[in-house]
């Protein structure tokens, strides 16, 4: 065993990691830790070990990310195909057809085509349309109102409380689900008060990857049926 220890020391001083030494000499790491705990190595050898460790770590991280991406796509495809199957029957329902058409026209869909954000987002200023979409989401996606987040987009910050009260009354979504209100006024409309929306525009957001891809599956089945 003494010759193995000497070999281990030389390999360590040459800039080899415990894993490399253990593999070469068929010696467990616990034994190497005991043999090499007092061995001093040069800065050059230390940098060599560190560089190899970093390289290995990066390679493992890349491989893990690739695997996660593949698994995520498999899950997305599963939800998408499930949505397409559901739509074959649901498209006979007028409320479903109207709600789905509105989302196709006004909703966020880029997550299905490369964007990293894969959540539902529907924005509009029409209170009746918003009311319709809340009904659509709760009835067909079986989303609880407590799981829908709302963001109000306003021109005038003085209207914040009024707008929040208004949209809460329209949507019946808990006030705690209303996230930070955004205020902005474009240069083109800054002096045109009559064009501003008193209660602003709101975003209905549902952070559910499964629901998002089911919805995309519904839209694609809608296209297939009518186009």
Architecture overview:
This protein has helices at 2-13, 18-25, 29-36, 43-90, 94-106, 127-140, 160-171, 209-226, and strands spanning 120-124, 149-154, 178-183, 201-206. It is an alpha+beta fold and 227 residues long. The chain has two domains: 2-68; 87-226, 60s Ribosomal Protein L30, Chain: A (2-Layer Sandwich), CATH 3.30.1330. α1 (2-13) runs antiparallel to α2 (18-25) and α5 (94-106) crosses α6 (127-140). It is elongated. The chain starts with a helix and ends with a helix.
Q: How many β strands by DSSP?
A: 4
The succession of helices and strands, N to C, reads HHHHHEHEHEEH
Give the CATH architecture of the largest domain. Answer: 2-Layer Sandwich
Q: Low-confidence segments, ≥5 residues, pLDDT <50?
A: 186-194
Q: What best-fitting shape do the alpha-carbon axes yield? A: elongated
Q: How can the largest sheet be summarized? A: 4 strands, mixed
Average pLDDT level: 85
Residue share in β-strands: 5-15%
Q: What name does the CATH topology of the largest domain carry?
A: 60s Ribosomal Protein L30, Chain: A
Overall number of structural domains = 2
Q: Percent of residues in helical segments? A: 55-70%
Tell me the number of helical segments per DSSP (H or I, 4 or more residues long). 8
CATH top level label of the largest domain = Alpha Beta
Estimated radius of gyration: 29 Å
- C-alpha termini separation: 77 Å
The largest beta-sheet arranges its strands as: 1-4-2-3
Content-based structural category: alpha+beta
